[in-house]
Design brief:
CATH topology: Farnesyl Diphosphate Synthase
Mean pLDDT: 93
Largest sheet: 2 strands, antiparallel
Number of domains: 1
Shape: globular
CATH architecture: Orthogonal Bundle
Order of helices and strands: HHHHEEHHHHHHHHHHHH
Number of helices: 16
Radius of gyration: 18 Å
CATH class: Mainly Alpha
CATH superfamily: Farnesyl Diphosphate Synthase
Low-confidence stretches: none
């Protein structure tokens, strides 16, 4: 496994690839630039870039090169950004801070923010379709991404999350919510990387297992940080789940038990990689890094 210094260098290098490519989008002339400005405002606001990094690093782990998967990586980040814009809307979480900046609807208004999210979702698939990978591969990737975005993925997860407000969920019910809301797009990202590399069926299954467990660990850690960290550290409003009367992992268990789940899920994620990929150093280090994150 990588040393921390090696991992951080590789993480920054991979993230930089994504940032440079994202900068190139939505700069064309338009009769009015408001929509593109709103799209770029949220897309280029920073963040961990976890999902595109998963695309690129799974492509590498499956024997491909990261450059060939870059359009897919950017498509995933566009889709993720759309979901964040909509998640922050007054009709959803009604948040005013995202990635340390005012949320999209706070700056541009609810109507433009909604349209910016819609446009980013459409642009995600346009970007994926612009890939120079074989057409058959791109079709498979499109199917994976659309499933993760729609009624069997993020939208289902968000619906389950919204209708459960004010109701006490069981641990199994809460895990199902986040299997769709959080893990679905992480799973898609991992599988897109394998597909971009022309990976094998066992690698797709391993990528899905890794990302599923990583997603649950990520969400539990998010709930821990929402409970223990400050708004300044998080870059978003701390304690909002409690304000919205949502069931979270921290509302149904102790801090010790929540951290134990994060540890277990991280272990399961790493175990899924073994004997399926030639080089898993970065992905193993990533899982541990996310387990220990403070924001």
């Amino acid at each position: 496994m990588y040393s921390l210094e090696q991992f951080l260098q590789e993480l920054e290098s991979t993230k930089d690839m994504v940032e440079k490519r994202l900068e190139q989008y939505f700069t064309e002339w338009a009769p009015d630039n408001t929509l593109q400005e709103a799209m770029r405002y949220s897309l280029l606001a920073g963040g961990k870039r976890l999902r595109p990094i998963l695309v690129l690093q799974f492509a590498r782990a499956a024997g491909g090169n990261m450059e060939s998967a870059l359009e897919a990586a950017c498509a995933v980040e566009m889709l993720h950004t759309y979901s964040l814009i909509h998640d922050d809307l007054p009709s959803m979480d009604n948040d005013t801070l995202r990635r340390g900046k005012p949320t999209n609807h706070t700056v541009y208004g609810e109507a433009v923010a909604t349209l910016a999210g819609d446009a980013l979702q459409a642009a995600a698939f346009e970007t994926l379709l612009s890939s120079e990978l074989p057409a058959e591969t791109v079709v498979k990737m499109g199917a994976v991404l659309s499933r993760a975005a729609g009624y069997q993925g993020m939208c289902l997860g968000q619906t389950l999350d919204m209708i459960s407000q004010g109701r006490r969920l069981t641990l199994d019910e809460l895990t199902i919510v986040h299997r769709y809301k959080t893990a679905a797009l992480l799973i898609a990202a991992a599988k897109l990387g394998v597909l971009a590399a022309g990976g094998k069926e066992n690698q797709l299954y391993a990528a899905e297992s890794y990302a599923h467990h990583l997603g649950i660990a990520f969400q539990v850690q998010d709930d821990i940080l929402d409970y223990t960290a400050t708004t300044e550290a998080l870059g978003k409003t701390a304690g909002l789940d409690q304000t919205n009367n949502k069931t979270t992992f921290m509302s149904m268990m102790s801090l010790h038990d929540a951290r134990h789940i994060v540890s277990d899920q991280t272990h399961y994620a790493i175990a899924a990689l073994h004997n399926n990929f030639e080089n898993t150093d970065f992905l193993e280090s990533l899982a541990i890094y996310l387990e220990e994150r403070k924001c």
